[in-house]
Amino acid sequence: RFPEGCALSMHGDTHPPGLILVLALVQRLGFVSPQAATLLCATAASLTALPLYGAARRLTDEQTERWAVVLYLFANSVSTFAVLSMDMVTLLLSTVALYGLCRVLSAPERCDWLGGLLWGLGLAAASMCSFLVGLLTLSYAALIFQAWRGRQLTRGVWLALGLGPVSFALAYALLMLGFGYRPFHVLRHCLRALALSPDNQRSPVLALLGNPVAFLGALGLPLCGLYAHSLGTGLRRALAKQDLETVGLIAASALPLLLAILLGKPRGEAERIYLPFVPLLGIAAAAAARRFYARSEGWLLGLALPLAALQSILVEVFFETLW
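Above: the chain sequence. Below: its structure as tokens.
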């Protein structure tokens, strides 16, 4: 509830209040400078590597997990927005949710209740920051289907999976009953505000053609090239019914991105707004590189890593120039 005549910022008008609450908490702790917000963004971006490492290890293997973390850390959109965007907090929370789900699916012999709670509560917290993370449920469904297809869903896994939606619903019930938060009212208000926003005045073609170019291009050459190659190779392997585990991982990473593009929202800033899609995309690209193209880490450490580091430095140097 706001005083009569109070006007919200564009972000406050078109987003749930999670990130504003995070900034309010930082201010309540006594940190009121822009540098404090910058440090918060950078910390969230760095900490995201930890749940990403855990998720990659459970979805793939020990070597692939290192590739995935390297690809994430040197993705241009990550290194650039690490000190510029509060979306890094959303990225961290959604990656914690992915890690929780991967914990559950990788432990068929027991009920990993902690993984189920991390999945549900992580997604609930991320959805308080951005409605876009709702599309990640497509990835979750694809990963669960793949585990079911591999007959990994035991009774304990089903119980842990059930904790995810239950904890998600309980988190929102607590917000509604304890603090008066009305999620459906917020959703309706944000949808109306988006319809009147400058973003909606842009051509839908910008989303259909521009968003994938902006998002994938902003990742940088190593990750963008590997992922684009993995999509083509994955399609051929799927038609030949080969390496279906890796193909399923590629599909799980592509589904939310594809739907976001088809929905046509947003019509700009996709390189930042689509950041929650990066972790699983990086894992899929690393898995494809390991299983389709290369078996040795030599090229990664000797060539790709130095080039990725150089690319990140150059992007930072030229960020505020015409180039």
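The chain has 17 helices and no strands.
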